[in-house]
Each structure stands twice: as structure tokens, then as C-alpha cells.
Amino acid sequence: MHPSIVALVSLAANIAANHPKQGLCQIDKLKQYGVAQEQIDAVVEIARHIRDEAGDSLDTSFDEACRKEGAKAKLSAIPISEGACCTPTASGKSCC
């Protein structure tokens, strides 16, 4: 696999996982490999969207489980995802 692809994947994973280093070291590598800023920006947007969508989904599932189970909700029984696989980013980019 080309190093630029590895760097893009690593950048996206760091952002989506809320890694403390945020994948910032990958930005310099990507620029050295000649990856266009537009492509980097698209990866960042998609990764942030996936991160935010996951958080929203977990919050919704948690809230629903708490309403159903009251204070004794079993968090391990909360479904992680329901509905569509993913939704597009604010600018219309697909994350799937």
C-alpha cells in the first residue's frame, strides 16, 4: 500500500477515535507525499462526521435504554446502531 494511503487512513482513524495526538503528524507526511489539501480536508471532514455520528448514536441508545430500564439500565445490552449505515457529511460527502 502506498505510504500516502496509510497516512490518510491513520489520520482518519486518529480523528475518529479522538486520539490525543489527533493525527497531526500525518498532515506533514501527507503534504510531503504531495496529497492535495482538498483531499486531506475531505478525510478530516469524513472522520469528524463518523466520530460525531457515533457519539450521537451512543447517546440516543443510552437515553432510550435509560427511559426503558430506569436507573437500572444494563449498558451492555444497549444496541450500538440502528437504521441507516451512515449519513452524508454536512457538505454531502459519503462516509460509506
Write the layout of secondary structure elements.
Blueprint lengths: L2 H14 L7 H9 L4 H33 L27
What string, H for helix and E for strand, traces the elements in order? HHH
The gross shape turns out to be: elongated
List segments where confidence is low: pLDDT < 50 over at least 5 consecutive residues.
Answer: none
Total individual domains: 1
Account of the 3D structure:
By secondary structure, the protein is an all-alpha fold. The protein has one domain. Helices cover 58% and strands 0% of the residues. It has three helices and no strands. Helix 1 runs antiparallel to helix 2. The protein is elongated. The model has no long low-confidence stretch (mean pLDDT 81).
Feature tags:
3 helices, 0% strand, mainly alpha
Question: Briefly, what is this?
Answer:
The protein has 96 residues and is an all-alpha fold. The protein is built from three helices and no strands.
